[in-house]
Amino acid sequence: MSRASDTEHRKLQIIHSAMDELVEKGFCALKIRDVAQRANVSAGLICHHFDTKHGLLLAMIRHAITSYDSQLSAVSNQDAAPRDRVLALVRMALTPELSNRRLSSVWLTLYYLAGSDADCHAELLRYQRMNLDVITQAIVPLFAPEVAEKKAHMIVALMDGVWLQHATRADPVDLEAAQALVAQMTEHALVS
105-112 — which CB contacts under 8 Å span 24+ positions? Predict the structure, then answer.
């Protein structure tokens, strides 16, 4: 393995360890030394790569957004009718792979800190714009651009709202039922 790829692998190992600590302890109790112990690296190495706890958090957030964007791009680039593409995007956003505890902890921390932290706010806006752009592009062949954007806002709000219900409940939400509900509401929006 090359030095650059070894460094990237180590950073990813640290990010995953930090995400696991975030699940167990929450952001306020997250400590670099605990992440280091979990990742089997020194705290100094974490500080070398990420500078601070805030830098590590931003790396976790950017990792989550990049992972989401990869799946979003794969689905949005499918050769499908606009309606089918939007429904596939809705279902993708509510898959168990994207709704696991590790990622959910990162997303919830992002939403919480976005109100008080400029970097987190910027990342949340980037994520929201990414979702809105992809949904709008998928449905613009069906509606005038202004109407498509309004409908896209509604669909993205539905996706986020249902995901938030899932992420904040002690008892897991039936994601298949959630996907079906958002898909049904999305279909209604596409015919109205």
Answer: 105/19, 105/22, 105/23, 105/26, 106/19, 106/22, 106/60, 106/61, 106/63, 106/64, 107/64, 107/163, 107/167, 108/167, 108/168, 109/22, 109/27, 109/57, 109/60, 109/61, 110/61, 110/64, 111/164, 112/27
pTM exceeding 0.85 = yes
Return the HEC string of the chain. Answer: CCHHHHHHHHHHHHHHHHHHHHHHHHHHHCCHHHHHHHHCCCHHHHHHHHCCHHHHHHHHHHHHHHHHHHHHHHHHCCCCCHHHHHHHHHHHHCCHHHCCHHHHHHHHHHHHHCCCCHHHHHHHHHHHHHHHHHHHHHHCCCCCHHHHHHHHHHHHHHHHHHHHHHHCCCCCCCHHHHHHHHHHHHHHHHHC
The answer to whether residues 110 and 123 touch, using CB atoms and an 8 Å cutoff, is yes
Q: How far apart are CA 86 and CA 1, in angstroms?
A: 40
Scanning the structure block, which residue is given the tokens 């806006």? Answer: 125
- Contacts of residue 35, Cβ cutoff 8 Å, sequence gap at least 6: 14, 17, 18, 21, 46, 56
Query: Residue 192: is its pLDDT beyond 80?
Result: no
* pLDDT above 70: residue 29: yes
